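Morning, I've got a small favour to ask if you have a moment. I've dropped the whole record in just underneath, so have a look.
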Amino acid sequence: MTLVPWLDRSNRRILRRFEYLEPPRQAPLRLALGVGLLTYIGMLMVAAYYDQIGLSLGQIWLLTLAVPVMLGAVLFGWNRRARVACRVPFDPTAETTRPTEAARGE
């Protein structure tokens, strides 16, 4: 994961540059897929103890596959709705504005 910015060739396209520091609100699909993948890995860890939890094999298969998909879908929908409220596009080249000492009253 550390080498992705240097190995990724999609940033060389002219149409739309992919920014790694882009806020999650502007990339709802990426957020949903990432959380879904992490949830899937967590559910696999839970699935290792399905017999001690008291679940059948079919139930743990259903949970392992359904929980990440549902969580990703909920996050995607919530993030898309929140994205409409925030219309400020991400611009990595814009300079950050910090209040000057005079504006802070110092």
